[in-house]
Amino acid sequence: MPDSLDVPPTFDVIVIGAGPGGYVCAIRAAQLGLKVACVERRETLGGTCLNIGCIPSKALLQSSENFEEAAHKLADHGVLLDGGVTLDLARMQARKGEVVSANVKGVEFLFRKHKITWLKGEGRIVAAPGQGAPGQVAVGEETHTTRHIVIASGSESIPLPGVEVDEQRIVTSTGGLELTAVPGHLVVIGGGYIGLELGSVWRRLGAQVTVVEFLDRIVPGMDAEVGKAFERILTKQGFKFRLKTKVTGARAGNDGVTLTLEPAAGGPAEELRADVVLVAIGRRPLTAGLGLDAAGVALDERGRVQVDAHYATSVPGIWAIGDVIAGPMLAHKAEEEGVAVAELIAGQSGHVNYEAIPGVVYTWPEVASVGRTEEQLKAEGVAYKSGKFPFTANGRARAMGDTDGFVKLLADAKTDRLLGAHIIGPDAGTLIAELVLAIEFGASAEDVARTSHAHPSLNEAVKEAALAVGGRALHI
Ligand code: FAD
Ligand code: NAI
Prior knowledge:
It is a single chain. The protein is α/β, with parallel strands linked by helices. It has three domains: about 10-155 and about 285-350, 3-Layer(bba) Sandwich (FAD/NAD(P)-binding domain), CATH 3.50.50; about 170-280, FAD/NAD(P)-binding domain (3-Layer(bba) Sandwich); about 355-465, Enolase-like, domain 1 (2-Layer Sandwich). The protein is about 30% helix and about 25% strand. Strands 1, 2, 3, 4, 5, 6 and 17 form a seven-stranded mixed sheet that branches. A five-stranded parallel sheet has the order 8-15-9-10-11. A five-stranded antiparallel sheet has the order 18-19-22-21-20, with helices on both faces. Strand 13 (about 255-265) and strand 14 (about 270-275) form a beta hairpin. Helix 1 (about 20-30) runs parallel beside helix 9 (about 330-345) and helix 3 (about 55-75) runs antiparallel to helix 4 (about 90-115). The model has no long low-confidence stretch (mean pLDDT about 95). The structure holds flavin-adenine dinucleotide and 1,4-dihydronicotinamide adenine dinucleotide (NAI). The site of flavin-adenine dinucleotide (FAD) has 36 residues, from helix 1, strand 2, helix 2, helix 3 and helix 9.
């Protein structure tokens, strides 16, 4: 890598992409004393996550949950809204915009604070750093020189052949976050994170929601027992599921969209009418226009930038992180990698523990998991013990009126070391943090079971599940 150059480059690091991977990498690199620029073509910083992903979806999830609570749940608590509850969707959407705006401006402030240069526009690698010459990144008419280049260009929705997205009636998550009227019937293609979160938003606001899923289960990456319980709970809420089914075409007309469905294994076709169709069958790495081919940066068999354990691509001086490389497409995973690669570039030993990256579906109840699923442990031939505790037996969950779900822990049969944790229930996404830390510290189920948990709290269900691993849960 060109650490000694005749003419010093303008920057030590140029990061391409200002999503959670890129902007966090830029901040960490600046903290370590490096001169940093970040290229972003969007009008605002923060990437998919802050602009069209995590943040706007969570704003709508919160607002729609508040609406559903007011309309259907508060009466159980003796809180009566006799005037009735009405929806101001325009206000709800405007609030979402305000939340996004505050967040993206926050990143701009952090860039100013850390003296990070925002190069506005489309970034393209012109030359890799090497042979005494700096790397070059073109942004618009200008070319900037740098010692290191970090690719953090993120991902985009996977299109479904025969189902053409217009972001009005046939939408990706981007259009699905912007609807100006509640659809009568929303058909979601794909029973994963986006389908179930956005499906929940629009169901709570009054839509009938049908999820068409190719496989025989929803959230296929999650623990199967949790997936089954999740499907049951969502069905009780009004979701309709068409599993083992594929969509082979879509016809958009004046009165909505007609989808053609077939059994996944083949069979007779049928039609399904929708007012809006959400395509949510996964995301793919975004690599077009970056000049990777010319620079010689290798991609893997799924079009992701290939990196080694230290985020180095096939070209010295060019690194890659986040959704554009392998691994779960999650904001916090991208952030951890952003920190690690900045530290590696600065000569430190940045590292990410992939065994301790949580995944959370922010529906209600929430679904959260970390580490191995039961299916993975079986496939790997690992001997394990499991402990489960339902929220029906947790005092706080009863007080809240939120007793759906359970905590399930998986521990090594011999050493008792925690290998996986899976929660479906109220605030599962917050509860999982304790277990992420436990796995990070190499804790045993016994360690969690012997830790005092405040009473009455939802976290006591975690303690009880840990006790259950040893066959000694107290409250069931
Ligand atoms: P991105 O956030 O995609 O950022 C990449 C940036 O690079 C973009 O802003 C893009 O404009 C820019 N870029 C690309 N190419 C160029 C170029 N040539 N020049 C200049 N700029 C370029 N994850 C979670 O952990 N929790 C959630 O709750 C969550 N919710 C989500 C909800 C939705 C609807 C979606 C779509 C995703 C959600 N995700 C969530 C996933 C999360 O958004 C991604 O994992 C995360 O944004 C990846 O970060 P990144 O930095 O790798 O890429
Ligand atoms: P996903 O991978 O979570 O789910 C896609 C689903 O579509 C899977 O169940 C898959 O079996 C199904 N599928 C694939 N092809 C299909 C087809 N042709 N017909 C019917 N079903 C099909 O992808 P999703 O929901 O699009 O989200 C993309 C990614 O964004 C997620 O994997 C996650 O990494 C991230 N995300 C994270 C969130 C969070 O952390 N809370 C929220 C939203 C997105």
